[in-house]
Every structure is written in C-alpha cells, then in structure tokens.
Amino acid sequence: MSQNNNALEQKAINTIRTLAADAVQKANSGHPGMPMGAAPMGHVLWSQFMRYNPTNPQWPNRDRFILSAGHGCMLQYALLHLTGYDITLDDIKNFRQLHSKTAGHPEYGLAPGIDVTTGPLGQGFANGVGMAIAQKHLAATYNKPGYSIFDYHIYAICSDGDMMEGVTSEAASLAGHLELGNIIYLYDDNHISIEGSTDIAFNEDVAKRFEAYHWHVQVVEDGNDIDALAMAIRNAKGETQRPSLIKVRTQIAYGSPNKVDTAGAHGSPLGEEEVRAVKTFLGFDPDQHFFIPDDVQQYYRDIGKKGTQQETQWQEQFEKYRKEYPDLAAAWERSAAHKLPDGWKKKLPVFAPGDKKIATRQASGQVLNAIAADLPGLIGGAADLAPSTETNLKQYSSFGPEDRTGRNFHFGIREHAMGAVLNGMALTPGIIPYGATFLIFSEYMRPPIRLAAIMKLRTIYVFTHDSIGLGEDGTTHQPVEQLISLRAIPNLTVIRPADANETSVAWRVALEHLSGPVALVLTRQGLPVLDQEHYAAAEGLTKGAYVLAEAEGETQLILIATGSEVSLALEVRAKLQEEGIAVRVVSMPSWELFEQQDKAYKEKVFPPAIRKRLAIEAGSPLGWRQYVTDEGTIHGMTTFGESAPAPDLFKEFGFTVENLYAKAKALL
User: Fold this and answer.
1) pLDDT band for position 4 (50/70/90)?
2) What does the pLDDT look like over 204-219, one tens digit per residue?
3) Is residue 330 part of a domain?
4) Is 395 left (phi over 0), alpha (psi -120 to 50) or beta?
5) Mean pLDDT throughout 416-445?
6) Which among 249, 389, 572, 593 is placed 20 to 30 Å from 519, CA to CA?
7) Same structural domain for residues 549 and 508?
C-alpha cells in the first residue's frame, strides 16, 4: 500500500472520529468513545471486505453488518453516509432528535443500511447467529454447481458489554456447535464500561472462552493497525468450519487528549473544548463542524459504487440461474416477497368433534406437519422441548453441520438465544421461523420478543403448557402473569385458541401476519373439539373475539373466556340456560386482533347495554376490566399454582362449573 493511500485512509478514519464527536456534542447525548476507538475496524470492514450496495440496501446477497455495540451507532451512521446510503449530513446533525433517521441506537427500518435493531447488549451478537443459520440454509437449498446465489458473510462489531451478557454465551455456544464459518465478529476490547475499567467486574480470558466454544480466535494487539486488522479478517474468511472472533485491543475515545481510555468518554459528550482538542490532535480545523474532506468523501463514494457493480454481476448470475432452475428461483422469489403458495390453506386440517379430547399443542403439531411441504421457508424448533411442544416436522431432517437443508432446529436449553436467533432468521427474506418452549419460559425470551415487536418481524412463538393445567410440575412451571405481560408488549399478537380448530385458524393468522411477531399459547391438557355445527365456526378467531354461543332469548349475561376455559364457559352456559337464564358465550383468543376491529363489530360482540359479564381465564386478571364492566367480574389466578394433577388444580382454584355458575348467579 502506498504512503499516499495510507495517509488518505488515516484521514478517512479520523473523519469518522470527528463526525462522531461532533454529532454527540451537538445532541448533547450519546457515546462518542466507542466509534472513535473502533473507527479503524469499521473502516477496514467497509472499505476492503464487505459487499453492499448503497443504492439497494436490501440486495439479498449483501454481507450483513451488525453493530452489536449499538451505543456506538455514530460509527455506523458515519459509514452509511460516507459510502452513499440515503443518510444525509443533515441526518447526522440531527442525531438523536425527534423523527430523525439517526436514532440513539440503530433501528431496522428507520435508516437504510441498518440490518437489525441493536442496543440491548448481546442481542445483535445472537441475531447474527440467526442470520448465519439462515444463510447456510438458503445456500444449501438454492445454490447449485456454478451458482453461488447465497454466499454472504455475517460481520459484527461487539463490545465488552456484549461479552458480559449471558445471551452472548448461549448464542456463541450454539454457533460453535453448528460450525457457522460464515460469522466474522470483531470484538472492540477497550476495557471500559460506564462504571469505569471493566476489571472491576470482568477479567476473564475471552479468547480462551471462545476457543472452548469451538470458535476460530485471533488477537490484534493494536486497534489502529489497519494492516493487522485486514490480515485477521482475511484469515477469518479463510476459516470455513468455525465462526471467527477477532479480539481487537482498542482505546476508547482515541484522539481525545484528556478522555482517551476513560469512562468519561463512554456515555457522555466530550465537551466543546475537548472536541476542539480532538480535531487539533487529528489534524482537523477545530473551528469546523461536521467537516468531510473532499478526497475522503470521494474515496468512500467510490467504494460504495463497487457494490452496485457487484449486485449487477449477481443479478446477471441469478437470471442464468432462473433459466436453469426456474422452480427454485420462483420458490425463493415468492417466499422472499412474503407470499404464500396458492392452495396452502386447503392443507390446514379441520378437526371433527368426538369423544376424544386433543390438546391444542397436539393440534398445532398436526397443523405444522400438514402444511410444511407447501411452505419450504417455514423452519424452526424448540429449546430442547420439541416432543413436549409438538413442533418437530416429522418428514424433515435436523439442521446441523452435516445437513444444512434440515428444517428442524435444536436450540438447546437456550431460550434467550433462541429468541434472538429467530429474529436473525426472520430478518432473512425467504425464511419464516418459529421457536417453541413452555409459556413460563417466555420470561427468558422477553428481550428478543420485544425487539421482534419493535422491528415488526414475522417471528412465530409456540408457547405451550399455558396454565395451571400443566399440573404436577408446580408453581415454578405454571404461568400466571405471562399472558398479561405478553399482551402488554406493543405490536405482539397473542393468540390463545380454545380448541383444535381455533388452533388451525390461529396458525393461518400467524403465517399471514406480516407486521409483527405472533405468540400461539397452547395447552398441555386435552380439550374437547367444539361442534361447529352447534356453535359458531372457529373462523371467528380472525377477529380476536366472536360470539361462540348465542343466548337463547334476550341476553342477560355474557361469559367471556380464552383457551381451555372456553369449553368450561359453555358448560356453565348450558346449566344457566336450563334455568331459563339467557347467556352468551364469547371466545376471545386474541385481544390484539379484537382491538383491530371497528366499533360496530366490537359493540356487536359486547353490546354496551349488556353489563353483566364474567371473564374466565386461568391467568392474571389484570387487563380484563376493559372488557368487563363495573357490573361484571373476573375469575382468574391471583396466586401462584400448586403441584398436583390438573383436575385437582382447576377445582382448587375455582375453575369448575359449580363455582363459575355460582359467580354468574351472584352477578344476576
């Protein structure tokens, strides 16, 4: 490399540093230190190795970039602007301001070129594992000799904080086991966190830890040595059997004479005088703000234009592929466009009423296996619970190092990582991921569920063993507050079906829902299949709540229930009807779907004049008051459960015909 090129690259790196310092200072909020210290590794990645096209940020075969250390987002925003993405200098100046593209942490869908929303530490690291799984699966499914349609890498920059979070350990263990050699992560080892030096809480040997996870590990001792960084990344690209971690020793806020290597540069602006000192130290005019030298701008724009050429070459290859493998090309394009094949709904099973009860988890398993052949992008698994959650696709193999076409995933007992990995998979066009565990263990998945809702991802959760009905495992496994806590997450659709047919419809809703994650909440215990000739059809689930059984006569009382309690409500209704009391039963599997209906429909289901209402759900009563008037009541769980057979528990906690009949009579 010539001396002139070295000088230009150094000027380019320092431009990133000054942009970060200026933006954080103008916002009077943010994290200037990380982008200043990590600027060389960002520069090397974006200038020498990554494939991307600023004019088409969604190019399917682009390399993915994850800033897992999302607090350092000015590094990413600067690179996006400099290389030609639709992020202007005014956007940089509006960093962290209302309605700006340049939010305080990178947000998917808000700014072009952001492949995933990051910020909560460890999540981006684990999202990348999902992206890597998806790439391997797409390559095994669609690549053919002479056609490397999908051969991209997953790059990330991680921090000390990422390494401390537990989800990183879970995801790293899974990635090493699966031999995901398409992962290349750079660890910004700057030894600083908010409270000071990381050695107050963190002094493990990260390199040895990742070697134990079966990762390929390298160490770069000087984060400013761009030649050493480039060599390490080249070595990592040459390693195809193991994911790669490059541990890079950096200095937080490099270029700041007084705040380099200090916690003061982590989460606060440097201060006007220190920003001036930074610019002087780096050879910039301290009186200029948001300054980009012309040669630096041209240098990065030329790099960005290479991506346009790379995509053009890929498109030419894909057109040849389409002619040789038209069915495969059409299948990928359809799934990548979030389109489902014609006729798939006809495969959804319809269950007949009879003497045999069926748990909704079992009905869900039958649905999955009935539709799997028509939906090749539908892949998933469980956190070591597939036999219990009924989520194994019986006609398909398991994804692993020797079989990348497998559609069954064994996430291990790693619920937190499973949630984050699902998000990475969902961010990949052509993949519809699902993941399963017991409802109680949704607690371990709360951060990635929330992020899926923020990003509006098409992620499907299968949460089984949904109440005290799971029985003998006791209070530790019996969910009480989980339903309402999941319903509290904006943009998450929670569906608790009443029987097998509602479960079939629920899967249809989940697969057709494109604007956010869906949680299917299913029973362990068997439930009767409701007679759709006698009661309203399960199709009513699509509206969130519907009149399952109409009152015989002028309605005096409305019974509202979800899941396993719906059949119980029908029994209570029958007993009351025998006494001439006209009772309507409403099945309400999804609050979120119901709230999307218009006022006329809502009032049709819950006429304002009918104020005697009894809601029945084996979960926390919180939130039900919006559907139960001040003249009604709610029967739910206000304590934890017990360890006993399910029938004994339902009796103990009052989920019986006799008790609910008495409550209904008391209302009247």
Assistant:
1) low
2) 999 999 999 999 999 9
3) no
4) alpha
5) 98
6) 572
7) no
User: How many CB atoms sit inside 10 A of residue 485's CB?
Assistant: 18
Give the chain's domain count: 3
Query: Considering only CA atoms, which of 540, 556, 549 is closest in space to residue 612?
Result: 556
Residue 275 shares a structural domain with residue 348: no
The catalytic position among 415, 502, 565, 592 is 415
Would you call 415 a catalytic residue per the annotation? yes
**What percent of the chain stands above pLDDT 70?**
99
Q: Has residue 429 been placed in a domain? A: yes
Task: Return the HEC string of 276-307.
Answer: HHHHHHHCCCCCCCCCCCHHHHHHHHHHHHHH
List, as one string, the DSSP characters of 137-188.
Answer: HHHHHH-BTTB-S----EEEEEEHHHHHSHHHHHHHHHHHHTT-TTEEEEEE
For residue 318, the model assigns a pLDDT of 98
* Domain carrying residue 663: 544-667
Task: Provide the 3-class DSSP secondary structure of residue 380.
Answer: strand
CA dihedral 593, 595, 597, 599 (to 10 degrees): 160
Place of tokens 């030096």: 197
pTM, whole model, 2 decimals? 0.97
The amino acid at residue 598 is D
Residue 137 pLDDT exceeds 80: yes
**Which phi-psi region, left, alpha or beta, contains residue 61 (left: φ > 0; alpha: ψ -120 to 50)?**
alpha
Position 638 in a domain: yes
Are residues 198 and 160 in contact, defined by beta-carbon separation less than 8 angstroms? yes
Q: Is the pLDDT of residue 85 over 80?
A: yes
pLDDT tens, position by position, 42-62: 999 999 999 999 999 999 999
List CB contacts of 175: < 8 A, sequence separation 6 or more: 129, 132, 183, 213, 215, 243
Q: 119: which DSSP letter?
A: -
Domain of residue 623, CATH code: 3.40.50.920
Task: List pLDDT tens digits, range 260-285.
Answer: 999 999 999 999 999 999 999 999 99
Distance of CA 457 to CAs 81, 121, 427, 521, 648, Å? 26, 19, 7, 18, 40
Dihedral over Cα of 252, 255, 258, 264: its sign: negative
Q: What is the pLDDT of residue 533?
A: 85
Residue 211 tokens read as: 């070697």
